Amino acid sequence: MVVMDKRGGHKLSDKDIKKSYQKSAERMEGSNTTLGSKLTSEDYNDPNINTSGFKNKKVDYEKIEKSPSMEEVHKWQREHINKDDQSKEGYPLNIIIDPAMREMYQVVHDADMTNVFDRFSQQQPIQCKFCIEGLSCQLCANGPCRINSKVPRGTCGVDAHTMVARNFMYRHVTIGTAANIFHAHQAARTLKAAGQSPESGLKIRDPEKLKKFADMAGLDANKPINELSVVFADWVINNIHAPYDTECKAVESFAPTERKELWRKLGLFPGGGYSEVAYAQTSCMTNFRSDPVEFLLNSVRLGIANEYQGLFLLDIVQEILMGTQKISMKKQNMGLLKEGMINIVTNGHMPLLAHVAIDIASTDEWQQKAKAAGADGIQILGHVCEGQQLINYEGTHDQKAYAGQEGEWLSQEYLLATGVVDLFMFDYNCTLATMPLYAKKFGTKLLSTHPVIKLQGTETLDFVPEKMAEQAVKALDMAIESYKERKASNRKVYIPPHVSDCMVGFSTESIKEALGGSFAPLIEQIANGNIRGIATVVGCTTARFGQGGSNIFKITKGLIENNILVLSGGCTSSVMEYTGLTNPKAADEAGEGLKAVCKQLGVPPVLTYGACVDIGKMTQTAKEIADALNVDTNKLPLVIGAPEYLEQKAVADACTAVALGWLVHVAPVPSITGSDLVVKTLTETTETLGLGKVVVEMDAEKTIQIYKDHIEKKRGELGLQ
């Protein structure tokens, strides 16, 4: 149908409008049809559109190679990383070292279901080499522009150095910083609700920590706890919302004194976090800033905001709500799932609703409700970083309904393929877009607990801290109904039987407590050389060849063998757990000095701090050690490593480490190699300014040597040869 307009002209019909889009493909890329017109319903993740989903995929739990006992698995893991066979040949089973994931990958792959490792392989032939080097820009309609030696500038005139530096800040640092600050904002909202709304189900589990940090912030810590929680929460929120040209009070209150002086001198002292992100993104607009060094320095400034308005504050606030870490032995991996239990898995990074659900599910009332539905009970397990936080917080990990930690982000599709996950609730990044298809196939109900993350065909709760108890009850009811459906369906299920025993709960406070109240004993062991230094091995795991946890494991093994104490946080913590490195027995795998210290204290050579966001607590530990030595943070025998970093928050965290003066190792190579100026600035120039620097290395053996050399250099500067 063609419609006449008021002037007698013709308007485009719906058919003509559709053709205009198809014609655009001819004009823009020379094709006769758009790619979008070729996609079928099976190319959607929305189960309402992709109605076939995995319906025709036949799952066979029997025809897979099962993993042996954990003792045998640990032996194989150690032999495996010495073979250097983690290449494209034999991928991905030659890089997957989690025994549960090895089994479930086979189940999914053999059924021809899309999954993260197979998708990585499929992407390799078509990945853009320009993007890999940071030499592709899509900011304006003249693009996409790509730069090479024959075409050294984009249409707007931008050169390779500006394009790479701008991409680095815009695509990675601003998003990562915004994400961590947003998380802190949501945690502060929750703390405020805990003080104002008794019906929320929220509690102040660590009032002494609230008093301590309120006092450091210059607030009256003698107020009643509920009132103080509101005042401190408002202080956090007001800091985040302050203008970028007003010095941030959180940085002033919590950052090292000498660092603050340097940041002021270099113009890196940030204002309000949200405003800093807005300022930085504005400078990325086409034909705005073109100085590549300014983009990189601005990234460091964002890294400071990322730490003191993001990571550090969200850690403090969540511990006030959920309890400070407590060193104890806990369990990890898929073998914790139980066919006869109602299994809830909570995924993400913000366990605010999850810990209320654990509170409620631990009551006799709800355990009886589960039994009335035919189950043995109800249990809640954490996954990815949310699981690493729940397993560490004293207020959650000792409760009846809490069952342990499940695994790293790579494992979630395989986790649902067990068929026994009744509810998968998720809140804040690291939830794969394919989960609706897996949920439909394997009978799992999905529930987003924050509107910032919405998946197709999935229910989403608004984030209302004042109603957390009510929302937690809704989640538990969904899980019970899902279990009833699972039981009635009588479908086949399979749970990989693998479980790791691991020591968890390490933090600034818990380590000091274990050492008798101060870091003096640790400093003494560093001074006498039993511990040469400290390395953090933090962040994500990737699906890349040579990685998948293998790279993390190999590097960590080499470090502890050289008497370097390792702190882990993020999905790396899962790797440390399922390889046995967080078990005190692993002390036998360390060098003689570190081994002696670990055996004396009864701790492993790898201390897990928990989640990737718990890197904020590691900086607090480093600051207190530096204060005890009366030196600046850049003088410490310390290396920050992210051997398998994945996404934007990790890059923002690397900028935090550079701001604090540390050597930062990242792999795989970030998208900066298209500019020798950007590489030189991040790997050399920043250090001459008193900041840290970045090193990029994929080879595990070379990485270990880099860590050792840097730590020995810092020992020499401290006179600790």
Quick one: biggest sheet? 6 strands, parallel
Global Rg: 26 Å
Number of helices: 28
Mean pLDDT: 94
Shape: globular
Could you say which structural class the secondary elements and strand pairing correspond to?
A: alpha/beta
In total, the number of domains comes to 3
Q: End-to-end distance, in Å?
A: 85 Å
Descriptive account of the structure:
With 721 residues, the chain is α/β, with parallel strands linked by helices. The protein has three domains: 160-322, Substrate Binding Domain Of Dnak, Chain:A, Domain 2, CATH 1.20.1270.30; 334-489, Rossmann fold (3-Layer(aba) Sandwich), CATH 3.40.50; 504-717, Rossmann fold (3-Layer(aba) Sandwich), CATH 3.40.50.2030. Helix content is 47%, strand content 10%. The chain contains 28 helices and 16 strands. The chain has a six-stranded parallel β-sheet, sandwiched between helices. A six-stranded parallel β-sheet has the order 13-12-11-14-15-16, sandwiched between helices. Strands 1-2 form a two-stranded antiparallel ribbon. Helix 7 packs antiparallel against helix 12. The longest helix has 37 residues, at 160-196. The radius of gyration is 26 Å and the shape is globular. The relative contact order is 0.11.
